[in-house]
Amino acid sequence: MNSLLRHRGWTWGFRTTILLYFVILIVLPILGVYYNSFSQGFSGFVESVSDPIAWKSVLLTLKLAVLATVINVLLGTMIAWVLIRYQFPGKALLNSLVDLPFALPTAVGGLMILLLLGPGSLIGGLAESLGFEIVFHQPAIVIAMVFVTFPFVIRAVQPLLEELDPSEEEAAYTMGAASPRVFREIILPSMAPGMISGGMLAFSRALAEFGAVVLVAGNIPGRTLVSSVFIYGEVESDNPAGAAAVSIILLTLSFLILWLINLAQMRGRRA
Amino acid sequence: MHVEVRGLNKHFGDFHAVKDVSFGIAKGHLIGLLGPSGGGKTSILRMLAGLETPDGGEIVFHGKTVNNLPPQEREIGFVFQNYALFKHMTVYDNIAFGLKVKKANKNAIRDRVQELVELTGLKGFEKRYPHQLSGGQRQRVAFARALAPEPQLLLLDEPFAAIDAKIRQELRSWLRELIERVGITSIFVTHDQDEAIEVADEIMIISQGRLEQKGTPWDIYKEPKTPFVATFIGESTLIENADELKGFKNAGGSKPTKALIRPEYIEVGQLNEFKMASATEQGIVRHLHFRGSEWLVEVEVNGHKLTTYRSLEKETLQPGQEIAVLVHRAYLFNDDRSWIQENGLKEDPMPVFI
Amino acid sequence: MRRLWITLTYIVFFVLIAAPLGKMATNAFSGGFSGFREALARPEALHALMMTGLVVIVVTLLNTLFGIMLALYLVRADWLSRRIKGFLNSIVDLPYAVSPVIGGLMIVLLLGPDSALGGLLEQVGLKIVYAFPGMVIATLFVTFPLMVREIMPVLQEIGAQQEEAASTLGAYGWTTFWKVTWPSIRWAVAYGVILTVARSLGEFGAVLVVSGNIMNKTQTATTLVYQDVENFNVTAAGGIALVLAAFSAGLLLLMEWSKRRKEVH
């Protein structure tokens, strides 16, 4: 009897520890940010956000993240298609390389882009002589975002293409549909869920990206200062309330996207 | 549509999948391609559809060679083994797809889809997606979709393979009636002989890429042209040496000859039940199985196990009982030829030679 | 058509992945091999690599242990109501949606010297932010979903029946876990470990905010790369980055390998 009681107490203690760890590690910090940004009331929040450097950084981040997402959806869908449908030398290697941006530290990714396109480099010099400026300007930020979010769309579209039964396409052919039509009406709709969910993941990651961007952006307020870098700057200059205010805009946006993805996936599963 | 195929050949790498197949199909007929899995049936069907390119030979529809026509222009309907319904389209859109491709006008499309929905008994399901349908319903949608653009030839690849045994029976007769009503030339592939016999006007037996025999189910059963067809269709027992059967001595001349014996070729009973007692042989009843309307009897004769059926009306046999066995006829074959031969002793016990 | 798409794919991979990697490798050796060695042999570089190693080890151990337990609870526990499980399940993914910088900020706000909790702990003599514990917490936060999300689908797929069968055969909790559950989830765990190592090795934003990036104390390999770039010492940055990239490539190979093993099961 005694041992049974002890056993029970141990079990419950164990369970409580695991759940507490979970809640404290994840939930408490998130609530903390929301609490902090409203600690000086709503007006304090508005004041922090209405700082032009703050809201311009948010707008810039949104704009560039959308651009990077569009590029990624296009490139990612093409690459997923090629990697599933065609047999060619080096295919397995390329397929493994897809995940490299996930495995590589983002700071390393940023450094690579800086070295390749920076002022001293061949491409950077060439672009400069043509009047383009890449590094420390907006194109570099987009490139960095595309790099770190590269695998999302590919990995979301690939399984859908693999699942697509080739006889679905053949059925359309026997009914007289030409190739472009089959692509538009059969293949594209099958890939669309992956393009959307992969695109949303890529977008939310691009919004949040810090490591790769901070190294290549130049971080000029109002021009190349994205939100995550702005937040870092505020923390460094000991203004956590300002950092928290911009943080919750980004956070809310990201949560919304996450929720949308979950919703879409749930509907997909029911379908 | 009249279909004519001449000298069709297809290789997949080193594998010779279809070997020199030729046949003709009259307009409005329903043909079953029957044979073991991997025998080349589906390859023939896919070449007819234009989904596979033949390495040699000619495919002629309506007197016109269609070898170089893509599937889009062959005016065929194809029902796939796993239906291949468009997952992201409703039943209505699936059926309407072929008509939309043909740029039919909206009203015409609606009427035709409505007509097919009623014909296939799918009324009320137009707005559903494929995953919301049962297997049998999906099959019907696939069928309606293939028929919608009014094809000249309907090709069906194992149309019932993915359906439960119970519903399969129902769908078979439904399909047969429907095809008769529409009056379209149809070819379906199956590995199930019951299905082929029940549904098809004519059967083509395909094995290892060759067309073994073409004919009505009854003809094929009655007169198999090759040993393969004889073993594949119906039940039979193989006797390695036909000489060992009473009444079939020297049937193949000097050549070693084998015999196939179907249950209905054999009669068993007491000696007094036979008119030609001299043609019978002594056997022992080994097993009796009750088969509902008759007995399945296994008898041992000269060390060979033969099976036959015996009416319930006749006297019930016992295992171990000694019994007379008469082999009325046998399907004989050797390296040169194959033929059906009646028991030689049955005719006349005293042959007169002139 | 086909050739065009394959060529385009090769071009994208070259421009986006191969060229930057190659450039970084040549850059690290631009001062010859000795330049590369010097960049690595700096005391701050050695210390930063050691810090990164420590963070990786501690975080991987904790995350693996808690990740397995939590995945088991979220899938199997019948002492949690469905609604609570659903709720907990939906917050597992939250760290994915949080920018690492914000993750770091959260910990500074909650446990920093100015916060109530942080002040209290500091009086006891436990420094969290701008010290090792804070860096571990920040990395645990960002790596949290990786393990749980790898194991949960496997547990759901194998179902509870095998475990129930084991219990009807007389096996108790631990035996069932080691003999029945563990063999089915071990490759998922291995994959989760690799993901966790890769992520904690490369974590930058959260660690940068929490650690304060103090040289020879809280500086990690990635934050040292950042500092070197800020100080226009690009060659030195490249040297350390190359070491990190080599580790990542190794992890990527391991990932491929364990993915294949995972599929076998």
Give a verbal description of the structure.
The complex is a heterotrimer of chains A (271), B (354) and C (265). The radius of gyration of chain A is 24 Å and the shape is globular. The model of chain A is unreliable at 1-5 (pLDDT under 50). Chain A has 271 residues and is an all-alpha fold. Chain A has two domains: 1-37; 51-270, MetI-like (MetI-like fold, Orthogonal Bundle). Chain A contains 14 helices and no strands. Chain B is an alpha+beta fold and 354 residues long. Helix content of chain B is 25%, strand content 32%. Chain B contains nine helices and 19 strands. A six-stranded mixed beta sheet of chain B has the order 6-7-8-3-9-10, sandwiched between helices. In chain B, strand 18 (329-333) and strand 19 (338-342) form a beta hairpin. Chain B is elongated. Chain C is mainly α and 265 residues long. Chain C has a single domain, classed as MetI-like fold, CATH 1.10.3720. Chain C is 83% helix and 0% strand. Chain C is globular. The two termini of chain C are 38 Å apart. Chains in contact: A-B, A-C. Chains A and C meet through helix 1, helix 3, helix 4, helix 5 and helix 6 of A and helix 1, helix 3, helix 4, helix 5 and helix 6 of C.
Please give a quick description of this structure.
The complex is a heterotrimer of chains A (271), B (354) and C (265). Chain B has nine helices and 19 strands.
Compile the SSE list and pairings.
The complex is a heterotrimer of chains A (271), B (354) and C (265).
Chain A: H1 2-37, H2 41-49, H3 52-85, H4 91-97, H5 100-103, H6 106-117, H7 122-129, H8 138-148, H9 150-163, H10 166-174, H11 179-208, H12 211-216, H13 227-236, H14 240-270
Helix pairs in contact in A: 1-14, 2-14, 3-8, 3-9, 3-11, 6-8, 9-11, 10-11, 11-14, 13-14
Chain B: E1 3-12, E2 15-25, E3 30-34, H1 41-49, E4 56-61, E5 64-65, E6 76-79, H2 91-101, H3 106-119, H4 135-147, E7 153-157, H5 165-182, E8 185-190, H6 193-199, E9 202-207, E10 210-215, H7 217-222, H8 227-232, E11 237-239, E12 258-261, E13 266-269, E14 281-290, E15 294-301, E16 304-311, E17 322-327, E18 329-333, E19 338-342, H9 344-347
Parallel strand pairs in B: 3-8, 3-9, 6-7, 7-8
Antiparallel strand pairs in B: 1-2, 1-4, 4-5, 9-10, 11-12, 12-18, 13-17, 14-15, 14-17, 15-16, 18-19
Helix pairs in contact in B: 2-3, 2-4, 3-4
Chain C: H1 2-28, H2 32-41, H3 43-76, H4 82-92, H5 94-97, H6 100-111, H7 116-124, H8 132-158, H9 161-168, H10 173-202, H11 205-211, H12 221-230, H13 234-264
Helix pairs in contact in C: 1-13, 2-13, 3-8, 3-10, 3-12, 6-8, 6-11, 8-10, 8-11, 9-10, 10-13, 12-13
